[in-house]
């Protein structure tokens, strides 16, 4: 039985509107096990609804838009006030070091066959001048490639990661990234995720 909520995505996953991301992920996995089309009694239509709900609620920015409006329409294309500095700070807090960031690193190294030369251009809010970002992102990449990578991926990673150097920090007069640039990074990330989710749903 669904918990009391006025927003369908929360009702579909049977979680409260203030549920933490871990609880939402747990609920999604349980429902996926129950309704996956390959399972006895599974439902392709229900699985699509579950994927749609989870795709929104696991993303901090999309979830905030959904909580405000009850819809995710325009969340990826409307720059005019949908994403502000507070949204970016919250996204950064939830995203950096998370499974979402790790998934994006895996997507990148898979797409570029282990070549991490442009990794920092792909991962939102990553900083080439920060040693900790280098360590974290390369650790995600190496972990996946060691377990699942082809010999070509391993060779490409070994060569390109050696060339990936920590850049010098910018002077204070040039430091920082504009709100427009950060917004563009987040929205590009959302678009990639939406496209990836649709491919997964279509393949099932």
UniProtKB/TrEMBL annotation:
PROSITE patterns: DNAJ_2. Residues 8-70 form the J domain. GO terms for molecular function: heat shock protein binding. Residues 160-183 are annotated as: Disordered. Residues 162-171 have a biased composition (Basic residues). One of its GO terms (cellular component) is nucleus. SUPFAM superfamilies: Chaperone J-domain. This is DnaJ domain protein. It comes from Gregarina niphandrodes (Septate eugregarine).
């Amino acid at each position: 039985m669904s918990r009391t909520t006025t927003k369908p995505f929360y009702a579909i996953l049977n979680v409260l509107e203030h549920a933490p991301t871990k609880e939402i992920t747990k609920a999604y996995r349980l429902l996926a096990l129950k309704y996956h089309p390959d399972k006895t009694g599974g439902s392709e239509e229900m699985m699509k609804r579950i994927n749609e709900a989870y795709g929104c609620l696991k993303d901090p920015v999309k979830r905030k838009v959904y909580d405000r409006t009850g819809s995710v329409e325009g969340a990826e294309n409307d720059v005019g006030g949908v994403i502000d500095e507070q949204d970016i700070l919250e996204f950064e807090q939830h995203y950096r070091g998370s499974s979402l960031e790790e998934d994006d690193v895996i997507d990148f190294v898979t797409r570029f066959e282990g070549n991490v030369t442009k990794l920092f251009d792909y991962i939102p809010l990553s900083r080439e001048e920060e040693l900790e970002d280098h360590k974290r992102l390369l650790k995600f990449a190496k972990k996946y490639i060691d377990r699942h990578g082809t010999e070509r991926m391993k060779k490409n990673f070994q060569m390109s990661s050696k060339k990936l150097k920590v850049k010098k920090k910018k002077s204070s007069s040039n430091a920082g990234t504009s709100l427009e640039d950060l917004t563009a990074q987040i929205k590009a990330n959302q678009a990639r995720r939406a496209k990836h989710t649709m491919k997964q749903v279509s393949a099932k």
